[in-house]
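Thread: quick sanity check before group meeting

JM: Hey all, I'm pulling together slides for Thursday and realized we never actually wrote out the predicted structure for the chain we discussed last week. Dropping the sequence here so it's in one place. If anyone has concerns about the input, flag it before I start.
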Amino acid sequence: MDRTLYINEKRGLEVTRDGPSIWVREDGLAGKRIPARLIGHVVIVGNVKLDAGVITLFTDNNVPVTFMNKKGDEIALTIPYNHQYNAHYHDQRQILERETSINYYKQWLASERRKIQLKVVKKLSRSVASVFIKHGFKEQDYQDFIIRNIKIGDKKKKNMVANVIGNLTREMILAGIFSAGFDPHIGIINRRENFGMVMDIFYAIEPEADLQTIQFFQSASDKDYIYMSSTGLAISKDGMRDIAQRFENKKRLVNEFIENILDGLFETIRNIKILRQHRCREVIT
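JM (edit): ok, ran it. Output follows.
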């Protein structure tokens, strides 16, 4: 699986392009050359000195680059430019043509979300999971369960960490969408929004981000990972490292979720086409 390159703001850190590689320099340390072909994702946190050639190197290699501030907010996202339609652009557009197709898609995606929600609940509490399985559960039941497990009064801190994990997850989703030939901007639930398809798929995978957020606060209970800076709350370098390491450890699982949903999207598109063909035959007869 492709590696994620994390670049955190640091005094004396400079990143430049060196042919098909990037060159990372840091005051007092030997430079490090990293071939772009080994990188699948890039996350830049804070004010990092780098030249424009670094960005174009990654976009030329179909590698998205996410820029975040120390609060965990996504500042910008660079993606490869493709002036032509993606391979399945028209298939995505066809879903939007009929209300029945839209509802079919929404029901499918909601079922995928519930599957992952149940996996998360099982991980945190088998007793609650057994109740959910026996009696069923609503979205609010799940949300109440998550809030009880985070056990933190400050919602701003929770949202900061959730944003970082969400940004990392969405970048993986974006890479998967490119690989599958879908258009990242043609969303069905998140219609007429930039990166609408990314947000649609994240809707299904979001429970995994909830779990990683809970695990962060469980591990950080005795650490000062979130502090008050001159510009407000911020996540420390050690906190970012903790988030990144946990995300990397679970990256294979997250990728499986993404691939399963993309496979399901292909199947959903085929089923919608079949339903449409049946209706056409009924009208003709």
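AS: nice. Residues 202 and 251 are 14 Å apart (CA to CA). The chain has a mean pLDDT of 88.
JM: adding both to the slides.
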